[in-house]
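ok so i was messing around last nite and threw this chain in just to see what happens. nothing serious, just curious
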Amino acid sequence: MQYYVYILASRKNGTMYIGVTSNLVKRMYEHKEGLLEGFTKKYKE
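result:
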């Protein structure tokens, strides 16, 4: 199985998040739509 390391940043807060996933497209969708608790819900711009 292939894994991806990704970095997200909040421009207004200067906060960065590093994650690991095996399905990068699905994970980016989850972040963009706020489907999971955590970084993107807390720092959504």
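not much to say yet. The chain is about 35% helix and 30% strand.
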